[in-house]
């Protein structure tokens, strides 16, 4: 379900489309004025390498300069690459319908359910936590499905090697998340070009821009990089679709400069019941996200299976359900019924039977569904992850550690490994097998 558009108007809103069009030419001029923000380097540049003349393809061993006439700069704000604050009020279905292209009439069957093109974009955006406008811009850039009724590219609407819209969206969302969170964590600063050359990106470039550039760089060779052929095309597509009001093309940080506000959570099952800690911190969806999600499986002990359980998953916090489908249920924890602002909790693997409906208001401890393998779970379980302003929050974030009824979640050496610790209690070790002595945990009566 899309966010309501009749909510308080103190949230950022997209200007009227006619006004947006007027910004396009100005935006192009502003781009040309941006300073040098990055240098591209070969894999092993010599220490005395110097920049080539602007616009020229450098010989091997010499860095490629990205100069003022070809700025790297801001390609996409963080708040648009994640499902962030600037997406408030955006009506995806209406936008796709008004575009009048091939996507507006497209449908695809996924797991026995027929979904429109807009619904497919919405599903992936919510499940992966990627902004739908960025996904739409990439579709238009790679195939023209928004603007063209009969596009020439029919098999690969998002480019790359993955055919089909739904699978292409998943691959794109995974790639964007992987680059975004690696950049946010300070573990990635290099783009790999199609010909094997690399571009080292300076700290001035925000995580959202880095993620989009990483996605686009797979189709760009060193000979093309000096003109930023693909990123410049992305800018042109974005402004044609959405305009370039500064609200949307600034860095739009999604995290506050100070510590995140407190967010108390309880274990996601009923008071006094025993479940099993089966997965330590891992990506909430796909390979690309941070280690933010943990999973619990219902009794009995012993071998795991995939049959839906009659046990109830309980809401870990108060809030309103803003999304509910086969992949995820999202509960917004503040009062605006919008995923992209404040805290939210995402639950995965809830069975379709008795799954909580959109717009339901829940209190911590209320039943919201039954654990299962829905959405691709390895066994009957429920996973839980947090987002703040639409960005996944890692379980071990220093200013906002994941704590459930007093149990602190600590990541292990690899994704999916980890322990739960609580004062006065024996540590619980994550593991796929349900063993009382190792990973059983009882929700305290009365909650957190």
* Largest sheet entry: 9 strands, antiparallel
Gyration radius, in Å: 23 Å
Residue stretches low in confidence (pLDDT < 50, at least 5 long) are 1-71
**Straight-line distance between termini:** 30 Å
Mean pLDDT: 83
Strand fraction equals 15-25%
Q: How helical, in percent, are the residues?
A: 10-25%
Pairing-aware structural class of the strands and helices? Answer: alpha+beta
Structure described in brief:
The protein has 448 residues and is of the alpha+beta class. Helices cover 23% and strands 19% of the residues.
Topology:
Blueprint: H1 17-21, H2 23-32, E1 38-41, E2 64-65, H3 78-81, H4 92-99, E3 107-110, E4 113-116, H5 117-128, H6 132-143, H7 165-184, E5 190-192, E6 198-201, H8 207-217, H9 222-225, H10 229-242, E7 274-282, E8 293-297, E9 313-314, E10 319-324, E11 329-332, E12 343-348, E13 361-362, E14 367-369, E15 382-388, E16 391-392, E17 403-404, E18 407-411, E19 418-421, E20 428-429, H11 436-439, E21 440-442
Antiparallel strand pairs: 1-2, 1-6, 3-4, 5-6, 7-8, 7-21, 8-15, 9-14, 10-11, 10-13, 11-12, 12-15, 15-16, 17-18, 18-19, 19-20
Helix pairs in contact: 2-10, 4-5, 5-7, 6-10, 7-8
């Amino acid at each position: 379900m899309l966010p309501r558009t009749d909510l308080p108007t103190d949230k950022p809103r997209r200007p009227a489309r006619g006004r947006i069009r007027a910004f396009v030419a100005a935006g192009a001029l502003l781009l040309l004025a941006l300073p040098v923000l990055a240098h591209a380097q070969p894999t092993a540049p010599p220490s005395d390498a110097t920049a080539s003349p602007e616009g020229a393809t450098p010989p091997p061993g010499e860095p490629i300069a990205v100069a003022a006439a070809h700025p790297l700069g801001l390609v996409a704000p963080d708040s648009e690459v994640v499902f962030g604050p600037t997406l408030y009020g955006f009506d995806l279905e209406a936008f796709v319908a008004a575009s009048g292209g091939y996507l507006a009439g497209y449908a695809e069957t996924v797991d026995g359910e027929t979904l429109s093109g807009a619904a497919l974009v919405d599903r992936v955006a919510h499940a992966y936590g990627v902004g739908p406008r960025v996904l739409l811009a990439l579709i238009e850039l790679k195939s023209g499905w928004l603007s063209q009724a009969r596009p020439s590219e029919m098999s690969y609407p998002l480019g790359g090697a993955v055919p089909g819209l739904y699978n292409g969206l998943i691959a794109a969302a995974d790639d964007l998340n992987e680059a975004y969170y690696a950049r946010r964590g300070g573990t990635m600063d290099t783009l790999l070009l199609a010909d094997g050359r690399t571009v080292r990106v300076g700290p001035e470039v925000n995580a959202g821009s880095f993620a989009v550039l990483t996605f686009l760089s797979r189709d760009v060779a060193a000979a093309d990089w000096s003109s930023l052929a693909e990123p410049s095309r992305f800018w042109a597509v974005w402004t044609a679709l959405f305009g370039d009001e500064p609200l949307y093309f600034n860095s739009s940080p999604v995290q506050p400069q100070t510590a995140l506000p407190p967010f108390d959570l309880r274990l996601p099952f009923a008071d006094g019941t025993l479940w099993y800690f089966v997965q330590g911190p891992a990506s909430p969806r796909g390979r690309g996200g941070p280690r933010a999600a943990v999973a619990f499986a219902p009794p009995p002990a012993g071998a795991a299976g995939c049959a839906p359980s009659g046990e109830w998953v309980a809401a870990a916090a108060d809030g309103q359900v803003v999304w509910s489908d086969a992949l995820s249920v999202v509960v917004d924890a503040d009062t605006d019924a919008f995923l992209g602002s404040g805290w939210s909790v995402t639950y995965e693997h809830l069975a379709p039977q008795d799954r909580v409906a959109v717009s339901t208001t829940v209190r911590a401890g209320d039943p919201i569904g039954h654990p299962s393998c829905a959405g691709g779970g390895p066994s009957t379980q429920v996973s839980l992850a947090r987002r703040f302003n639409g960005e996944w929050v890692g379980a071990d974030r220093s200013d906002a550690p994941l704590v459930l009824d007093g149990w602190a979640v600590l990541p292990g050496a690899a994704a999916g490994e980890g322990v739960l610790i609580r004062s006065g209690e024996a540590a619980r070790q994550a593991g796929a097998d349900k063993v009382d002595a190792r990973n059983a945990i009882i929700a305290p009566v009365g909650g957190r």
